[in-house]
Each structure stands twice: as structure tokens, then as C-alpha cells.
Amino acid sequence: MQRLAASYIYPLDGHKPVRNGFVEYEEDGTIIRFGESGDISSEPEYYDGAVVPGFVNTHCHIELSYMKGLFRRGSGMTGFIDQINSLRDISPKEKRLNDIKFRMDDLWKQGVSAMGDISNCDDSFEIKASSEMYTRTFLEVFGTEPDDCDKIMTDVAALTDEAMALGLDAAPTPHACYTMSPELLTAASAAALKSSFLSYHSEESAEEEQMIMSGSGPLFANRKNAGMSTPPVTGKSSLSYFADRIEKIHPSPFYEHILLVHEVCMNQEGIDRVKTMMPNLFISLCPLSNIFIHNSLPPVSLMRKNGLKITVGTDSLSSNDDLNMVNELFCLQENFPEVGMEELLTWACSNGALFLSREDTLGSISAGKKPGLVFVNHLSPQGRLTTASSSQRII
User: Fold this and answer.
1) pLDDT at 83
2) For residue 125, what is the DSSP state?
3) pLDDT attached to residue 90
């Protein structure tokens, strides 16, 4: 048996945070118990900060790790798409693989125990398969031309087989309304739902909303100028358009785990549409990516008011300066100071584990679980994150 103590223990299992507490665990990381320490000065291993369960990064593009530092900030969604199209695959494969391996190892050392990862190719498969971190791979589907739908779905099925042959949990998933024909959006969503998990970039920018609602704006013009077909103009939000497309599969409700990523433009009408339609709905916040691309943030207060299950992701190094969960949490804390530390950690740990259906082992410091234990340092006197805060894995 091992034992550690800390200024704060965040169990996230229904118990309140423990001030000057301890955690006991087996050699293999299985939690035995936690509680309040009678004499913190006598503890054999003491951490001056918070000990929390391993993080769950619900949205990452680890295969884009070679793109760090290549993108200009504040380009808007249209400028960002143009950059990624011109810069994708500019690095030799050996560099891409080295960068993926470095970032996967770094995320593990920071305390990320599980991740929902987006893949467009097989670059990351063997690295993820050999990692101690659990990953679910979402094989993102693109294609604006309806006639290409069958071929694209055949190709992604082959990529799925390749990932699963390496032992990865993997399935197709749709990307976003502006990169897919209506037919492909429905087909990819159907394939995702068969796996019980769907991840979708939704309402990431006002440009996306303009495109769907009125057939206008820079993103609409960008697609037209590139000779691509555009989605139908609906007069409704892009989230409502997504809901309409998946209801082509079967009538709601959808009980699968559905993750809407970003949701910068989410409003009450959209929430009312999807909340009962998708009983297992999750939102992935990637605030630093939103700021990097178009200096916007999602309506977190509205999401909290409606009781949505919020999770946290880092997105990719094409739209972020780092892959760091504590930095994302600090950004949320500073912009939404009404959100306390326990709630932030619930988003970053427990809710992420729940989305990935790994709550039996991850997400909380509970007897019998193996969530990993993470030290978050340099807290304020009030126990809040500071600019100096970082995280490191203990077990």
C-alpha cells in the first residue's frame, strides 16, 4: 500500500473536497480509500496543492502535433481552413510520428488518463495503441459532393478496420456541416451511432452560422469560390441542421453518447432542440482554440443554467499553443469566475470519463478505481488556479 497527502484532495465521487487529506492506493494504482489527515506534517509524501483524478481530454487532434507554431492567430474560421489545407502534410512522416509520440508522452506526464482523439489518417494509430493512455479514436469524415458519399464511407470503413486491428476503439464520425454533403453527414453519423459514440464540431464560429442560416458570409463564399457544394440554407442554426440530418437515421431520442465540440454560438433555442433529443449529450469546451482562431468563447453560463454535461478538450497544435488541460481550465476560470475549482475538475475528469463510458475505472478518486492521481501546483491562497499552475502525474 502507498499513501500520499495534499493540501486538497478532490475525489469527485460525490464527496466534498478534503482539506489536508490523504489517499491510499495499491502498487498498481487502484484506490483504497481517502480521507482527512490527522497530522499533515507526519505524512510520508505531501503535495502542497491539489491531488485530483487523471484528466480526460475529450477533444484532441494528436496527429496534427507537427503543426505547432505554423498558424497565424485571429484568422477566423475561413482563414484557418485555408491554412490547414495548405499546411497539412508538409512535414515528412518521420517528423510527424516523432511529434505525435512526444505529445502523447507529454499529455500522459501532465496527467491525462484518457482522450477522445480525432484522426484523418493512420499516423497516430500505433503510438496510441502502445500508450498507457486510453484513447477512443474518432475517424473524421469530410466530403462536400453527394456523389462521393459511398466511396468516402468505404474508405473510412477500411481505416476503422486498421485501427481496430491494433486494439484501438475506433469508428467513423462526422466533421462539421460546412465540410460535408447532407448525405455524407447522415451516413457518417449513422456509422458513428452504431459504435455508441459520436463527436461533431458544432457551431464553432459565426461564419458557420451565417453559411447555414442565410447562405452568406466568408465561409460560404470560401466554399463557393473553391468550387465546392454547400449545405442547404435552412434559416435555422447549424445545430438544428445537424439535428435534422441525424433524424433522417431514425426518429429521436438518440441514447448514444453524443459530443458537440466548441458550441461557441449555442443558444437557448438550440439547447431546447437537442436536450431531450439526445439524453446522453456532452459539450466539449476548447476555449484556447476558440480564442486562437476567432477570439470568441462559448456561452458557458447558458450551458450551466441548462444543466448540460460539460467536458474539456485541448483541440490541436494548429489552433493552440500547447496541449495542456490546466491551461484550458485556467482560461475558463478567468473568463467565468463563478465556476469553482471542483466544478472545473468535474468537467475535466468525471464528465469526460462518463462520455467515454470509462467511469468504472476513471474520473474520480473512488475505492476500486484506477483513475491515475495528478498533482496540480501553485494554487492561490483560496485554492484557485494561477498563471503558474501546472500538473504532473503522480501515478
Assistant:
1) 93
2) H
3) 83
> How much is the pLDDT for 86?
86
Structural domains in the chain (count): 1
In a domain, 376, yes or no: no
- Residue 308 to residue 282: CA distance in whole angstroms: 7
Whether residue 375 contacts residue 7, with contact meaning beta carbons closer than 8 Å, is answered with no
What grid cell was written down for 257?
Answer: 453518447
Kindly state whether residue 45 falls inside one of the protein's structural domains.
Answer: no
The domain spanning residue 253 has which CATH number?
A: 3.20.20.140
Specify if 296 maps to a domain: yes
Burial class (CB in 10 A: 0-12, 13-18, 19+), 307: exposed
Q: For residues 265 and 293, is the Cβ–Cβ distance under 8 A?
A: no
What residues in the chain have per-residue pLDDT under 70?
A: none
The set of cell numbers assigned to 270 is 438550440
Q: Are strands 257-262 and 197-202 parallel, antiparallel or unpaired?
A: parallel
**Which residue(s) pair with 136 in the sheet?**
116, 169
CB 214 within 8 A of CB 192: no
Strands (E), the chain: 2-9, 18-25, 31-36, 46-53, 55-60, 112-119, 134-141, 169-174, 197-202, 257-262, 281-285, 309-312, 373-376, 391-393
For 88, residues 6+ apart whose C-beta sits below 8 A from its C-beta are: none
In a domain, 172, yes or no: yes
Amino acid 89: pLDDT: 76
CB 55 within 8 A of CB 371: no
What was the pLDDT predicted at 41? Answer: 85
Looking at residue 137, what is its pLDDT?
98
CA 273/CA 231 separation, integer angstroms: 20
Compute the chain's Rg from CA coordinates.
21
CA distances from 123 to 64, 140, 143, 391 (A): 10, 14, 20, 27
The strand order across the sheet containing 309-312 reads 169-174, 134-141, 112-119, 55-60, 309-312, 281-285, 257-262, 197-202
Residue type (1 letter), 232: P
Q: Which structural domain range is residue 250 located in?
A: 55-323
Identify the pLDDT of residue 239.
Answer: 98
C-alpha cell at 211: 453559411
